[in-house]
Amino acid sequence: MTEVRIQGPGVLDRDSGKALLENVVECRMDGVDALIIDLSETQSMTSPGGAWLIKIADHLREREKELRFEGQEGPVAEFMELIGPSFAAAPRVDRRHEGVLERIGGAAWKSTVEFRDFYRLVVDAIYWSFIAPFDGRGLRWGLLVDELHEMGVRAVRINFLMNFLLGLIIAMLSAAQLETFGATILVADLMVIAFFRELAAIMTAVVVSARTGAAIAAELATMQVQEEIDALRGMGLNVSQFLVAPKLLALLIVMPCLVAQGIVAGLIGGSVWGIGVMGIDWEPWLRESLNAAQLDDFVQGMLKSVIFAFVIVLIGCHNGLRVSGGSRGVGLMTTRAVVMDIFALITIDMIFALMVYYVL
């Protein structure tokens, strides 16, 4: 083995350590296997001097050369023993490649854990919303009123506008088709049936999920990141009682009202096009609308609104309480909550459609 020996300075400090590194860099290492630094004449060493030795070790490691120290005694030997682990290369960690079955199993396990957490949240929310208040455990009535105002009153304008525009569009498109058959008056029937059964409920649910569902997820996620949720649990308070139950009850009350408002707004939008643009007299339009109105259709829309409210609140709370990763995690979970809301709404609506088509 070919070796090169360099004599260490009497005092190894910031300046002498830097000079020693420059000396090592300038040293020709072609055909040399190891570098030996002789510290027999070194009487003292400072922390910056030790740092320069570590830089020398890194420099030689990059060139696959061995570094050894000899001759150190007294305080220098003790200092070298203290910083000795820093000269060793960090162990190489090989990333283990996961197989297909391992990835499937990991995803299945994560889904199982998430489903278990969601199930527990549903059970707690039902208990603290519908059972505990009648069992003398109380309810945060002040927060319930605040949630009613936030979820209901402040959503009236945007909900009316969205359903009005949707009614205008549906009337416009359907009139273009029915006009070829001379049956434009049937637009009134179509508007009533569509908004009673389907459009008002789904459009209102989308508006609420984008507005209220996202707000719920962001609020709870922020509290989770700032450890306010842990503080509540540390004080012996139930999170579902103080945070989930008021939101669930508020949206269960507000959602049918918003859907009813959406029905009115959609029918007004359709009437604007039918009466104002198509020139249909208001009396036959109103008569046709009343004849098409069925209680079963209205009940179906109201039932959807209740289920939609239940799903929006629980999905928002579930994602908010599972956040991790700071402010970025808050944004990701808020987005995830809205996406899950929309998917759940469409799925539930499809189930209703199948039941109406095949069962009722």
How would you describe this structure in keywords?
elongated, 2 domains, two-stranded parallel ribbon, 360 residues, 5 strands, 12 helices, three-stranded parallel beta sheet, Transcription Regulator spoIIAA, mainly alpha
Note down, in words, how this protein is organized.
The chain is mainly α. It has two domains: 85 residues, STAS domain (Transcription Regulator spoIIAA), CATH 3.30.750; 256 residues, no CATH class. Helix content is 73%, strand content 5%. The protein contains twelve helices and five strands. The strands form two sheets. Strands 1-3-5 form a three-stranded parallel beta sheet. A two-stranded parallel ribbon has the order 2-4. α7 packs parallel to α11 and α11 runs antiparallel to α12. The longest helix has 40 residues. The chain is elongated, with a radius of gyration of 36 Å. The mean pLDDT is 87.
Q: What's this, in brief?
A:
With 360 residues, the chain is mostly helical. It has helices spanning 14-26, 47-62, 74-83, 100-131, 141-151, 156-178, 186-225, 228-234, 239-277, 282-292, 295-321, 326-358, and strands at residues 3-7, 11-12, 34-38, 44-45, 66-70. Helix 1 packs parallel to helix 2 (47-62).
Order of the strands making up the biggest sheet: 1-3-5
**Number of folding domains?**
2
Envelope shape: elongated
**Low-confidence parts:** none
Oligomer: single chain
Secondary-structure class: mainly alpha
Mean pLDDT, to the nearest integer, reads 87
Radius of gyration: 36 Å
What is the tally of beta strands?
5
* Relative helix content: over 70%
Please describe the topology of this protein.
Blueprint: E1 3-7, E2 11-12, H1 14-26, E3 34-38, E4 44-45, H2 47-62, E5 66-70, H3 74-83, H4 100-131, H5 141-151, H6 156-178, H7 186-225, H8 228-234, H9 239-277, H10 282-292, H11 295-321, H12 326-358
Parallel strand pairs: 1-3, 2-4, 3-5
